[in-house]
Amino acid sequence: MAEGEVDVQVEHLDVLTEIGQKTGVSKPRGDVHRDGDYHRSVHVWIFAENTQELLLQRRADCKDSWAGLWDISSAGHISADDTSLVTARRELQEELGLILPRDAFEKIFVFLQECVINDGTYINNEFNDVYLVTTLDPIPLEAFTLQETEVSAVKYISYKEYRSLLAKEDPEYVPYDVDGQYAQLFDIIEQRYKENIISRSLKLEKQLQQYASVSLSAELSGLTNADKEALDLLVKAATIMNEIFYLQVWYSNPSLRDWLKEHAGASQLDKLKWMYYAINKSPWSSLDENEAFLTTADSAIKLLTEAAKPVAGWKGLKYRAAFPVPKPPGANFYPPDMDKSEFELWKSSLTEDQQKEATGFFNVIKRRSEFNLDSSIYNNIVGCSNNSASSAYDLYCVPYSQEYNHFLTKASDLLHKAGDLTSSPSLKKLLHSKADAFLSNDYYDSDIAWMELDSKVDVTIGPYETYEDALFGYKVLEQNLPLDNVYKSKDVTAAPIRVIQLLYNAGDVKGPQTVAFNLPNDERIVKDRGTSMVMLKNVSEAKFKHILQPISDVCITKEQQKLVDFDSFFTHTICHECCHGIGPHTIVLPNGQKSTVRLELQELHSALEEAKADIVGLWALRFLVNQDLLPKSLMKSMYVSFLAGCFRSVRFGLEEAHGKGQALQFNWLYEKGAFILHPDETFSVDFAKVEGAVESLSREILTIQAQGDKEAASLLLQKYSKMSEPLKIALQKLENIRVPVDIVPTFPIADKILQQGH
Questions:
Q1: pTM score over 0.70
Q2: What is the pLDDT of residues 96-126, one digit of tens each?
Q3: Which residues make beta-bridge pairs with 588?
Q4: Cα(197)–Cα(467) distance, rounded to whole angstroms?
Q5: How many CB atoms lie within 10 A of CB 398?
Q6: Are 40 and 75 in contact (CB under 8 A)?
């Protein structure tokens, strides 16, 4: 290598496009600022809650920009191939000697800074990830260890005073436009701490009123004593799934839960916070398009005794466990600062088996850089199994069995004990195989055992999300679908249906309650055996009684109200589940390549799949009535019950797959004249037009899926998945008379079991 060709000390930065995406090129930092290339940095603000002050640092006199001026608590470039959160943590450690865990950092916004300084020689086009660290009190200034080449001093200043200094463009402070993007920092702090307790309590009360409390029980007299004992252990195992789920939502979520529960008795507002949190299992409201109803200011206070230099009489740093206001799309399954392009780049470096693992249901994706940072700080991290890529990439894969080992070992033990107790051979087989799967991460045998279950106690436990797509159904429906024959599946497996009374649920059951699910998700089993469907009849009955009936009384014309009945509602729910299994699943693209609908439609898949299951379910009901497989009396009632059901599902919000899918169906049928709005603001079904409209929408959706046409899916959803005027009218009426949006179940049998266990 020629001398001077590469200087290993020179920091390289990733060059970005004007909208902040990586170009794949990296350049030395000096060249980036000389040429005005777009790049990324982090800003970290330390805020003391009790004094409402921000920490500022004075930049060292030797800095190449803004030398000697007061600036952000800590900031720095994100080096090439480095990541945002790790950079934020490292900068604090290097510049100020502060060691903070990742749950201290809340990303509050991204700020684009475009400016030219130093007589045109330093061009700064910088995307800044802005983080807030919320401490209770100011950190003693003598606790900091300042990096002399970067920082010459630190001080605390009231955020209001700092804002006014910036507004006046005080020459001692690095300028930020406090009327522009950077106003967000001050606005967020202001809103967070000037809360009006009364208005906040009223809002939470209103959100709680969206749920009707329903007690769900079941008849246990048919169970043997051994099965009752096994049931006790199963309920306890289910509560462990709750623990895992809280962690999967966001890494500081378990701390938040414990804190809110512990402080629920402190005031009426604290009680309401805990009640609404308990329904959502997170700080984001499921029924309000995942809008946050809490902020980091409501969160748990944690104490760090070794975050900085020891100072006499100072017990350590108390901070709030942070969470972002927008719900993170990757939850805690992926690093919070990972984007799709980084994931795809890493995935493309893996072998085929490793790719399956990376996109599989039973793994989490983590960062090596974060693991290495934690290891260097805490020296006690458990070794990471990385069986999935060269270390040129920062991401790696961890199986559930390792990530949640502490919880799954306990759950496995309980299932083995329950398996030893039960008298049912198929339940015994299921429980032992599921207990083994928790520790091996291979769920194949236990999923087969679940499908073969023939027992009075029905258990679905493990890493499942309900409402996953699958391939099963009825051959007769598949062959008669309103879809060109070339797209129809040849081999369809019938799905066994189990109707049960729900006795207890835990884990990924938050906000709106599911009335049915089909499992497993494992595509090997789906291909060989199809899936099994479970219908929760007591949940459906509660929703019909507390929600659908009152909706019908307000929104449906008098003469059609009598047609809304539970049988139609429940039969359509069964049909909806069956129809997840028919229609296109594995498809052949126009270029001859094999793919799946899910892969082609990506983030649009869920909403379209829900709409398909619904509308094709309605089509299927009519088909089965015409085949004399269902009573003729269902014909009219199923359409009117469906119309009332549209208003029920749209209330879940248009961010949610069911709500999006339902708005699409309602607006299509309304446009085709199948649904009519009357002057008294009630609705009815036009029976002469509804069949044709149902069939045309079924054909439209099925064809888009069969062709894997994402553009057509996007256009269809843009046009019809919206809050149209007729929908607004109906929802306003329901708001006025306070019809609940969903139910929140209580489980007396399980509660009794759990109380005995304490």
A1: yes
A2: 999 999 999 999 999 888 888 777 778 888 9
A3: 594
A4: 38
A5: 18
A6: no
- Sheet strands (E) in 60-98: 70-71, 74-77
Reply yes or no: is the peptide bond before residue 520 cis, omega within 30 of 0: yes
What are the tens digits of pLDDT across the range 11-64? Answer: 899 898 898 888 888 899 888 888 999 999 999 999 999 999 999 999 999 987
Give CA–CA dist 491/527, Å, rounded. Answer: 9
In angstroms, the CA 610 to CA 569 distance is 16
Residue at token pair 């990439």: 393
What is d(CA 585, CA 387) in angstroms, rounded to the nearest whole number?
30
Half-sphere exposure of 326 (CA within 13 A, CB side): 9
The bridge status of strand 395-399 relative to strand 497-500 is unpaired
Q: For the segment 226-248, what is each residue's pLDDT rounded down to a tens digit?
A: 999 999 999 999 999 999 999 99
Under DSSP, the state recorded for 546 is I
Asked if residue 576 lies in contact with residue 618, where contact means CB atoms within 8 angstroms, the answer is no
Closest CA to 129 of 105, 111, 152, 146: 111
Helix (H, G, I), strand (E, B) or coil at 493: coil
Q: How many CB atoms lie within 10 A of CB 211?
A: 21
Residue 224 in 3-state DSSP? coil
3-state SS, 606-649, equals HHHHHHHHHHHHHHHHHHHHHCCCCCCCHHHHHHHHHHHHHHHH
Distance separating alpha carbons of residues 207 and 277, to the nearest angstrom: 11
319 with 302: CB under 8 angstroms?
yes
8-state DSSP, 443 = -
* Cα distance between residue 146 and residue 130, in whole Å: 21
Tokens encoding 729: 């009218």
Token code pair at residue 94: 């290097």
Beta-strand relationship, 53-59 and 70-71? antiparallel
* Cα–Cα distance measured from residue 173 to residue 183, given in angstroms and rounded to the nearest whole number: 16
